[in-house]
Write a structure and sequence with these properties.
The chain has 107 residues and is mostly beta strands. 7% of the residues lie in helices and 29% in strands. It has a single domain, classed as Ubiquitin-like (UB roll) (Roll).
Length: 107
Amino acid sequence: MRTTGNRKADLRLTSGVRRGRKITIFVDGRPLTAFLGESVAAALLAEGYLAFRHTARRGEPRGLFCGMGICFDCLVVVDGRPGRRACMIEVRDGMQVELQQGWGVDA
């Protein structure tokens, strides 16, 4: 996540992987390359994002934990809707993703 300085270099595998069409999603207003068929969490992790949200009470960073939609640690805002599990939502061209602060804007 850019605000805490924990964003690393691109972590995508480059060989032996078949991907969908290259698309662009926007994370906190910045363009990010993703591929059809991958989850929002996969796209964020590949770009080096470790924290997808910060908790409401203590502001602690949370990222991908279970990767299968059970733990709710990877919550992000997708197209203005807070509380979306990044591991369960497939990217689509032009999608607007925001790293979530606390409960999100509507919760």
